[in-house]
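Note to self: user wants both folds in one dump. Writing first protein now.
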Amino acid sequence: MELKEYFENTKGTGVLSTADSQGNVDCAIYARPHVMQDGNIALIMRHRLSRQNLQSNPRAAYMFIEQGPGYKGKRFFLTKTGEEQDQEKIQSMSRRSSHADQDLNPEPRSLVYFRIEKELPLVGSGE
């Protein structure tokens, strides 16, 4: 199954881990990433600690835990490659496309792009 199809059809929980330039680590719950045509992924990020960490350290890890019994999913080691603040594009990509959500929580959001450096299964080394 290709990555785009995997994230479109698999339910679960995502966790993004980042660290600042001093090595202070953070992790946060994130939605499934958007898989772009070039194979990179993108996350819609509010302007909070995870995004702030990426300003000084472009490396991150994303873990996706599939819904259901057992421990199934994927781990990705990422490098930030770009970012944009086009709110129309972000709104069109948002899976929760309700304008009410934005009205209730008007924080700025960015579309942050990542290159996948390495992919592993949720559990084990993948070898």
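First done. Writing the second protein, which came from a different request thread.
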Amino acid sequence: MIKWSRFLGFLMIVVLFFALAIPTYQSIWNNIQLGLDLKGGFDVLYEVKDAPEEKVTMEGVIATKNAIEKRIDSAGISEPNLAIEGDNRIRVQLAGVFNQEEAKKLLVQSAELEFKSPTGEKLASGRDLKSNARAQTDQQTGAPQVAVEFKDPKLFADITTKYVGQQVSIWLDGEMIQNPVINEPILTGSAVINGQADLKEAREIANYLNAGALPFPLEEISSFGVSPSLGEEALHDTLYAGGIAFVLIFIFMVVYYRLPGLIGMIALVMYTYLLFSVVSFMGITLTLPGLAALILGVGMAVDVNIIAIERMKDEFRNGKSLLSAVIMGQKRSMPTIIDANITSIIAGVLMYWFGTGAIKSFAVAHIISVLATFITAVLISRLMLQLLVRSNLIKNPWWYGASKKGGASK
């Protein structure tokens, strides 16, 4: 007797999934953050050097990393990746940044601003300014300038009062950029810095001042860039290879394992959708090694289904009925599947713990793929197969991998 409720339950799972996946897959993919090897950008490794009056410590390295990160944020560069390597090195990865020289200048410019008296005495520094410097144009001349504001207006008022009629020079990184004459005391604590070639340079100086000076100087150790075209080509080739693999796996599973193979492939589509949904939702930056790990996970997800199907075929050989063979095959395959997934997760955790850069990216993607495999290839696939068998709609064991005589097909 056909149990239509079980078959409708099977169809409901499939229909609901595709009704959710088809309208949303494009937006999920568009929301995934791509690393510089897929999107283009550059990678640079700096060594933090001793300052003239202070040796580098780990606290100093962390402070320098934070200062660099603040500069990147002030420049509006999205998705930076900064990591401390060893005792005194900082790796900076910026995706989508293609003018490497300008980006490097932003990172290493010391941005030490000083106000000096006519005799060269230091009167104030950039540390006395609020982090609200901004580029603007002079309303009378249209010339670019940088507007700054002192944290303590009294400090600037005292300076401008003392040096009325004299020049108070402004220095940036040891170079004098302005030497104005103080005509009258400035009591508001506001000032402007002139002398920029254009508004772009004024914005750069404002960004430097807002981010503050670097605690320690940096020396470039290595750098490399990836053009947008190379990143796009790598992404296209990887997805193309994954698509070919998916088609070949689909043909093999359906021809060799029949209905269980078809259900396994439906679960595999669910696995792929769940995988990229998690990556998009968690805001994980997807790199080429990470994408390779996700595609490798496709093979692992299929392997989980094959283990369960082969155990089911063993039960057919032992003369079990269709329902008994499916239930016992799934039950006896579970310890092997769990052991394999646990060891894979352990390997991923160790890679993440001891690895750096691309290895960490691979490890994160690997762990996510294992968890997604367990949800789709184990839980959902098992449920769908049992619903189909219990519906009694297709009773011939041959459709489930058995031979016409009742044993497992070769």
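Dump finished. Worth passing along: The chain has ten helices and 13 strands.
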